[in-house]
Amino acid sequence: MSEEVGYTVASDSDTTREETSPEIAIGIDIGTCQCSLAVWNGSQVDLIRNTRNQKLMKSYVTFRNESPSPVGGVSNQLSHEYEMLSGASIFNMKRLIGRLDTDPIVSQASKTLPFLIQTLGVGVKPFIAALVNNMWRSTTPEEVVAIYLVEMKALAEARLKRPVRDVVLTVPAAFSRLQLTRIARSCAMAGLHVLRLMPEPAAVALLYAQQQLPKNMGDSGSERVGLIFNMGAGYCDVAIIATAGGVSQMKALAGSSIGGEDLLQNMMHWLVPEMDSLFSGRGLDEIKSMGILRVATQDAIHKLSFQPTVEIDIDLGNGTKICRVVNVEEFEEINKGVFEKCGSLIQQCLHDSKVANVDYIDDVILVGGCTNIPKLKNIVTGICNKSEVYSGINPMEAAVRGAALEGALASGVNDSFGSLDLLTIQVNAHRLGIRADGNGFVPIIDRNTTLPARREMVFTTAHENQTEALIVVYEEGDDEKLLLLGYFKVVGIPAAPRGVPEISVCMDIDASNMLRVMAGVVMPGSGTRNPVVPLMEVRMPTADDGHGLCAEALSRSFGSTLDLVTLHNKL
Amino acid sequence: MGEEDRTPLSSFIRKTLAQSLSLQLLEETTSQLQNQPHFSTACSFNTNEPPRVFKTPKTNFTRNSGFSSLGSVEEISSCCWNCKTRRPFLICESCGSVQPVDHSVDYFRIFGLDRRFDIEDGSLEGMYKNWQKKLHPDLVHTKSKEEREYAAEQSARVIDAYTTLRKPLSRAIYLMRLEGVEVDEEQTVSEPELLGEIMEIREAVDEATDSQALNKIQSQMEEKLRHWCNSFANAFGSKSFDEALKSIQRMTYYHRVNEEIVKKL
Ligand SMILES: [Zn+2]
After folding, report:
1. Where is this region: Disordered (chain A) (predicted)?
2. I need a surface site. Which of A312, A368, A567, B38 has the fewest CB within 10 A?
3. What is the pLDDT of residue A245?
4. pLDDT digit string (tens) for A78-95?
């Protein structure tokens, strides 16, 4: 596919750049709906504007027949929003990247987005295609993101008048490791070198730390506790941070794949309950109708943030006309589930942070496009028992500004005024562990463990004379769903009664968030505590596309023959 | 108790991998190393592949195998590797170079505290953040590769020190280790009196149907925790280690009940 579209594919391992004087890495915030770019200019962060003088650019890529092939929202000027909904444009990729066709988010998207997403429901990548000259042309979320990144790179290079290679990208806290791998792949395809994939709340925390810097040097300032609530079109993040003297320590981080897109879909289904079957054919007329419905609904939701009622009056063709008035109460009732989920995410994060009670929270920091919805603002301020939100941060720019600060830090830039004297100490958003104790998930690194982190646990064999053990590594995602990251076998375990060999499994996340899983075998009573076979060290994830299929295949092939059980007794 | 304390560290991990672990409380007990003639080869959750955050540099292993007397520890820590200034700490005060980890510096010293159980609220945070600003892997990009590795190790150790000292139970266990007393967290309860109490509380937690009932048990547990923290502090202060161990066992238990309640709430 790389020949078809005009981007370079750089090697993943091309990371040797030690001695050259560092360029300042730029910050990129790729949103489900909008994107932005920013860079440290030597004294502060600048947002980079496109030729239309926009700081926020729509995230989509339009596929066309003629050359230069696809164009994205960075450089393309839409004459009307419907143009983006003609079937030729692919968008919402941040929500779909790194997901399988068994993921409810993908099947939901396949029914409501005006391009082709085919799901077979077997645990592989969905098939995605754009309509070009009445023909479906296949692509992938990674490719679409890469094409978009190529445009962003070109824009940044034109504005900064220098080559751009190093980037810091913000990602949702809910992103799985498989999604991180995919987005990193997109960057590599676009010829970008990722210094950091930074959770959006971590970027916001860095910006907050800068704003809280004491005015006079030497004064370390008192600690301020902030709650960051970030909700855009595709994801929602919550973080609790404690900031003093330029350092933000994350106390807890939680994320979920809910966002403005859910509000939109719920609302569309409410307006046209039969829409799934109505649009299932994906003919030209259906795509047009989907576009009309989407634009009108989006517009209505937007207006409901500022006015009590809104009128929707559209003609979807085929005799389907919609003409009705929606009020705020109805909108909130339709989306009750989404709002409840946001509330419980905040509660969970507060609980995990071990902040004794909400009175310890000094600032409520709202970020992302959805936070101008009054209901959401009320939920957050209500839970935190605050009458106002922190006003020092622009909700639409906070993440990219934080990314640009991290870009400067990661490039080794020093600021003589001390305004880069900053650090965010991050925590791990997802539990990581292995399959053991029957078909159970045994966590090794817990949620909210300070990074970098290394934890280990000891297991033993489940069967008599078991000489091999299968280490199957999982990450726990939304709603405790388990995602297979990879697997490997430990071999050469000396024959022994079950429960005797000690199999240590160690997980290590380094500062750049790379996960390694290590395993070793020790025989107690053998007079030596040395491992009996060479240790294994495996970078995760190893499973990639089709990891859903893979999990099933593993259990089919091996059953419980290579099982492990935890080796410790609790009181 | 935090996640790190729940993780059962096998004796294998403790002994053979002591130097390479992010959380292991045994690193100071050099006698452990003495019994490990093959330490440098057995210490193997390390790769040669940079950059490794918790990697103890290869050179360090050779030093470690010669770690068998306190004398050699002194030798390592006596001079800054860069400017040769005497007695550098985590960072050399005169040239600012990050030093290799010196395991004779205990967690309390990192925070400028005495080896005592009672520490004031908020006495860790400021120092913790100051250290991280000097040591965190995100902030040492301009330093040499070797110094970056020292920083990664030191930063990880400061995180461990912070998480260990912040919570009363792990702080108590750590203090005991510094005194050479092992605490077996998985030890089963043998005292009939405590056993009976445990059964009772278990039942109460199981039978509690609403959050009100659970909250009530929780505040009882917190009260008991406070009580046993105090008795630990007293016992430890007067070096009655048996009494101190008894307190730790109870703290461990009430803490677990608390965790179970939190899960149910
Ligand atoms: Zn020095």
Report:
1. 1-20
2. B38
3. 87
4. 777 777 888 999 999 999
Residue A67 pLDDT: 55
Residue range A313-322, pLDDT digits in tens = 999 887 889 9
Residue B231 domain-assigned (yes or no): yes
Residue B7 — very low, low, confident or very high, per pLDDT cuts 50/70/90?
very low
Rounded CA-CA distance B136/B119 in Å is: 25
To the nearest whole Å, the CA of A409 is away from the closest chain B CA by 7
A223 CB within 8 Å of a chain B CB: yes
- Contacts with B, A 479-538, CB within 8 Å: 502, 504, 506, 508, 510-511, 518, 520, 522, 524, 528-531, 535, 537
Same domain, B162 and B56: yes
Ranges of beta strands (E only) in chain B are: none
Alpha carbon of A402: minimum distance to chain B alpha carbons (Å): 14
Number of separate domains in chain B: 2
Do B76 and B160 share a structural domain?
A: yes
Count of the separate structural domains present in chain A? 2
What count of other Cβ atoms lies within 10 Å of the Cβ of residue A526? 12
For residue A557, what are the contacts with CB-CB under 8 A and spacing of at least 6?
none
User: Residues A418-435, buried b or exposed e (16+ Cβ, 10 A)?
Assistant: ebbbbbbbbbbbbbbbbb
- Which residues on adjacent β-strands are paired with residue A38? A27, A47
Q: Which residues form the domain of A502?
A: 431-570
CA B93 / ligand 1 centre spacing (Å)? 7
ipTM over cut 0.85:
no
What is the reported pTM?
Answer: 0.85
